[in-house]
Amino acid sequence: MPEGDSVHRAAARLHAALAGSPLTHADLRVPRFATADLTGRTVLDVTPRGKHLLTRLEGGLTLHSHLGMDGAWRLFAPGEKWRGGPSHEIRAVLSTATATAVGYRLPVLELLRTADEARAVGHLGPDLLGPDWDEARAAANLLADPGRPLGEALLDQRNLAGIGNIYKCELCFLAQVTPWTPVGALPDPAATLPRVAAAARRLLAANTGHGGARNTTGSRRPGRELFVYGRAHRPCLRCGTPVREAPQDGRPTYWCPGCQSGPVPERPTS
C-alpha cells in the first residue's frame, strides 16, 4: 500500500498537470458515477489527506480516490499511449487540453460535494504531511488504547494519517521496541510517543521531495536504504543480528531481535 509520502508526491504531480484547466473529457468507470458529466469544470486543486486524494472541481464537487494496495494515477501527454495496466483496470480518466490523468485499480472512487469531504476523510487523525499536523494530538491518539500493539496503532489512520507498513517497521526499529509491544508498555509512553510521531513526520517529509528509493537510514549505498523492512535473514545494519519477519495484522513485519526489545510472535515466519 502506498505510504503518505507517495500519495503527497502523486497529488503534487496531478495538481501541476491539471489544476487551473477545464476538463475536456471525464470518465468515471464505476457504476454509481458512470453518468456523471464533469466536462467543462475547471480543476481547482488536488489535495492529499493522509493516503487519500481529493481532486476539487469547479462547482463545489470533489473526486475522492484512494490508492489501496496497488492503485495508481498515471499522467500522459495528449496522444501518448496509456501505460499502467489493462483497460479493464481503469477506474477514472480526467483530461485537459494538455494532460490526461488515468486512475488504475482504485478501490475507492467517489464523487461528492466539496462541503461533504469530511464524510470521506473526517475520521482521519492529524496528517503527517498536512497543515493540520499536531504532534501532541497524534501522541494522545496513540496512547488512548494503551493495550494495543504499537505497530497496529501506527497503522491506524484515525491516530495519525500517512503511515504504511514500511514506516511502521522502521519507526518501531528507531524506537527500539518490537511492533508487538503494547503502547502502554513503552518506556515512558508520554515522552516516547511524541518522539515517535515527530520521527514519523521527519521521515515522511524527507522522502516526499524525490521519487527514488525510500530511505530511512541516510545511507545511499544499495541495499542499505532501510533499517529492517524487507531485510529478513540479512544482518541488522546496527548490530549484525539477522532481521526477523512475521505477520502483524496480515502484513509482513520486520524487526531486529538485537536492537528491539518486547514481545514477538511465538512462531515467526522467518
Automatic annotation (TrEMBL):
Segments forming domain Formamidopyrimidine-DNA glycosylase catalytic: 2-91
Annotated InterPro entries: DNA_glyclase_Znf_dom_DNA_BS (IPR015887), FPG_cat (IPR012319), FPG_N (IPR035937), H2TH_FPG (IPR015886), Nei2_N (IPR044090), Ribosomal_uS13-like_H2TH (IPR010979), Znf_DNA_glyclase/AP_lyase (IPR000214), Znf_FPG/IleRS (IPR010663)
Sorted UniProt keywords: DNA damage, DNA repair, DNA-binding, Glycosidase, Hydrolase, Lyase, Metal-binding, Multifunctional enzyme, Zinc, Zinc-finger
Reaction(s) this enzyme catalyzes, per UniProt: 2'-deoxyribonucleotide-(2'-deoxyribose 5'-phosphate)-2'-deoxyribonucleotide-DNA = a 3'-end 2'-deoxyribonucleotide-(2,3-dehydro-2,3-deoxyribose 5'-phosphate)-DNA + a 5'-end 5'-phospho-2'-deoxyribonucleoside-DNA + H(+)
Top-rank taxon, per record: Bacteria
Coiled coil feature spans: none
CDD domains linked: AcNei2_N
Keyword DNA-binding: yes
Cofactors demanded by this protein: Zn(2+)
SUPFAM superfamilies linked to this entry: Glucocorticoid receptor-like (DNA-binding domain), N-terminal domain of MutM-like DNA repair proteins, S13-like H2TH domain
EC number: 4.2.99.18
Keyword Transmembrane in record: no
Residue ranges of every copy of the FPG-type domain listed in the record: 227-261
Pfam short name (any one): Fapy_DNA_glyco
PROSITE patterns reported for this sequence: FPG_CAT, ZF_FPG_1, ZF_FPG_2
UniProt family annotation: Belongs to the FPG family.
Protein name: DNA-(apurinic or apyrimidinic site) lyase
Natural source organism: Streptomyces katrae
